[in-house]
Design goal:
Low-confidence stretches: none
Structural class: mainly alpha
Radius of gyration: 18 Å
Mean pLDDT: 82
Strand order of the largest sheet: 1-2
Helix content: over 70%
Strand content: under 5%
Number of helices: 13
Number of strands: 2
Shape: globular
Length: 244
């Protein structure tokens, strides 16, 4: 099986996945239009509320997309699909690359849809600001793409839905996707060590003059990505040895 054939297969499966459409696209879009649309004239932290809320919903929807795509490994393991793939020419690296790329493409789709919805209710950014926001969001998704693959090897199929739905909602809440939980103090210091906090901030990095992430953002994302990748690799090797 060629890598591009498998990637196409993954994309079609993702698009047909109702859970993806609901949690990665429909929920964030409906919340954004309902809440931001009703508060178009408000501002938060010096930013127009629709623009502020757009970044939070883009972070939540894209996070859900990449985690869900990787976590489908659990379903494939349960029906023996991964064993079948091992006897095909498809490389293990191509298998996981397809998972990550399909998640990223769906995340991009979610972000674009939300951006279009934002323009309908008055959100205005320059091309540079849109591209800055998009680029940093995609970088901020790296640890979540790895987390999805890790969950695929750790969580059972029956638990997959609640873990992804509840987990991403909690991470989005702590990251400030629905609004800031804290603006100072110990709690703010703690949540700054979560990748979801910087994912939300990635969406706001272009706001207010093109500010970029501080060094802490890059360090936190890099550490989470490396640690989760090492754990995922170890769990994958354990599963491979178990079924070999």
């Amino acid at each position: 099986m060629k890598r591009f054939t498998y990637l196409r297969f993954e994309l079609l499966r993702t698009i047909r996945n109702r859970r993806f459409l609901i949690f990665s696209l429909a929920f964030p879009l409906v919340l954004f239009l309902t809440i931001a649309g009703a508060h178009k004239n408000l501002s938060l932290e010096g930013i127009s509320f629709p623009l502020y809320y757009l970044s939070g919903m883009a972070a939540w929807g894209s996070m859900n997309a990449v985690i869900s795509s990787g976590a489908r490994v659990a379903q494939e393991r349960s029906i023996g699909w991964t064993r079948q793939l091992r006897i095909t020419p498809l490389k293990t690296s191509d298998y996981f690359t397809a998972k990550v790329l399909s998640g990223y493409l769906m995340a991009l789709f979610s972000i674009v849809v939300l951006a279009l919805a934002g323009t309908l209710i008055g959100v205005r950014l320059s091309a540079v600001e849109w591209l800055t926001m998009l680029g940093l969001l995609l970088v901020g998704l790296i640890p979540f793409a790895v987390l999805g693959i890790l969950l695929g090897h750790l969580v059972s199929v029956d638990s997959l839905g609640p873990v992804i739905g509840g987990g991403t909602s909690l991470l989005a809440l702590l990251g400030g996707a629905y609004g800031p939980l804290a603006t100072s103090g110990v709690f703010l210091t703690v949540v700054k060590y979560l990748p979801s906090y910087w994912l939300v901030q990635a969406g706001r990095s272009a706001l207010g003059g093109g500010n970029v992430w501080p060094a802490q953002a890059w360090i936190v994302l890099a550490v989470w990505s490396v640690v989760l990748a090492r754990i995922a690799a170890r769990v994958y090797r354990r599963d491979t040895a178990r079924v070999s």
